[in-house]
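Input (DNA-binding transcriptional ArsR family regulator):
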Amino acid sequence: MKEQRHPDIAEITLTRLLTALGDPVRIGLVRVLSDDRERGWGELRAPVAKSTLSHHLKVLRDAGVTRTRQEGTRCFVRLRRADLDDRFPGVLAALLAAAEADGTGDEVSAADQSRRS
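Output:
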């Protein structure tokens, strides 16, 4: 399988970050990944088709929000929290707090999590 390209920390721009996070499903994915666990794509639950979920994960990866790792035919994803905190201190924490307060992304979960209420 082809190795995925991830932007270097200096390539992560605020505009790309905010654009990537401009969708409730993607914010939900970031909320799920904010527990700092690596997740298999198959563990992620969202109210979209698998192809759409794949697109959302690609947008997050291309913006530098997540890192994808392939193992055989399986893909795993994790949040690039340290990189984002180094590049834009406080932005991720503020976004996660606001999303939690507003319920943005509540429809997204992981297989081992119950849906947020």
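Residues 18 and 31 are 15 Å apart (CA to CA).
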